[in-house]
Amino acid sequence: FYKKQFTMIKIVPWHKATVLSRKQLSPTVTKLTLQIQPPNTEDRPTTPFTFLPGQWVDFKPLLTPSPTSPSSSRPVPPKDAIGGYSITSTPSNLPLFELAIQKSRHPVAEWVALHAQPEDLVTVRVGGNFTYSSPSRSSSNRDNVNVMEQSQ
Known about the structure:
Number of helices: 1
Oligomer: single chain
Largest sheet: 6 strands, antiparallel, barrel
Order of helices and strands: EEEEEHE
Helix content: under 10%
């Protein structure tokens, strides 16, 4: 007789989001503003989208654009391409959140920099265990996250 040990793995759900805007912050960084779509039981988990300061998202553009999206003639990354990007907004801004995406040849980052447009649909899931918390500061003092890039 022997005992089996099992490790519990938390499965983090994917959530649909809509691109609201894309803004070039510098020659190498793009800010993407997104809005999480409300969860429903038909095609997405009912678990609400939440995150803590310091976490990132896995990010995939959906291959099928929304009917009102102008993306039908624009290229999309391969179906299995996933990008991981820093969340630069605070949880208090939900259902809106922002990502900072550095320019690269990665297919998802390239899609964001060149092709993402308002109303495009994407899926995201939260990742990362390195989070920020400050018991000495009230939550009202943690409403801003700054992203800086040094020019050379």
